[in-house]
Amino acid sequence: MLACLPVAALAQLVPNSFEPPKTYVAKTYKLVPLGPSVAELDYQAYMSSIDHIRKSQGGNWPSPGLTMQDQAKDMASEKAQWDGRLSFPFAILTPDGTKELGCFYLRPSPKQGYDVVATMWTIQEQFDQGFEDQLYKDMKAWVATAWPFKNVAWVGRDISRDTWRSLPAKPKP
């Protein structure tokens, strides 16, 4: 997650001339910007699927000890990154907006050859129903048609995590 990086240290991910889409609506779900307005839904979602998310994302987030206070700080950071056009985190909600099914992120790529990294996670229940595969297909098409990125890294999908880790880093500015 980029939440630990200072917002001022990052460059805009998209130019000012581009208006980032704020929603994506499908038959069985919708995307909205991740931030304070969905903090409780987000917290409930990831806390319900800690082991699944850690395994699918290859990391140690989320931690069982996270609190709503931690969540509030994270959501403020996510909103600041969105508002600053630094990254674009989305909550994946049910059509009625009452439950979060996961998250989708467009983040700057730290690796040479890619402008953006697209990642996602879903709660265990949705993963077990095959939702993540459909989400990947939908998001891949959406990013290709609605966003200005030329080289998108779909880590864990089109690029294995091991291959991704071995790619050279972008030079520091």
Describe the structure.
The protein has 173 residues and is α+β, with helices and mostly antiparallel strands. Helix content is 35%, strand content 17%. It has six helices and six strands; from the N terminus they run ββαααβββααβα. The protein has helices spanning 39-47, 50-57, 68-83, 124-128, 131-146, 161-166, and strands spanning 24-25, 30-33, 88-93, 100-108, 116-122, 152-153. It has a six-stranded mixed β-sheet with strand order 1-2-3-4-5-6, with helices on both faces. The longest helix has 16 residues, at 68-83. It is globular and about 40 Å long. Mean pLDDT is 90; it is low at 1-9.
Q: Main traits of this protein?
A:
6 strands, single chain, 173 residues, 35% helix, alpha+beta, six-stranded mixed sheet, disordered N terminus
SSE topology:
Layout: E1 24-25, E2 30-33, H1 39-47, H2 50-57, H3 68-83, E3 88-93, E4 100-108, E5 116-122, H4 124-128, H5 131-146, E6 152-153, H6 161-166
Parallel strand pairs: 5-6
Antiparallel strand pairs: 1-2, 2-3, 3-4, 4-5
Helix pairs in contact: 1-3
Largest sheet: 6 strands, mixed
Radius of gyration: 15 Å
Which parts are unreliable, with pLDDT below 50 for 5 consecutive residues or more?
1-9
Please tally the helical runs, counting DSSP H or I stretches of 4 or more residues: 6
Strand content: 15-25%
* Helix-strand sequence: EEHHHEEEHHEH
- The best one-word shape is globular
Helix coverage percent of residues?
Answer: 25-40%
SS content category: alpha+beta
Q: What is the mean pLDDT?
A: 90
Report strand order across the widest sheet.
1-2-3-4-5-6
Distance between the termini: 20 Å
Number of strands: 6
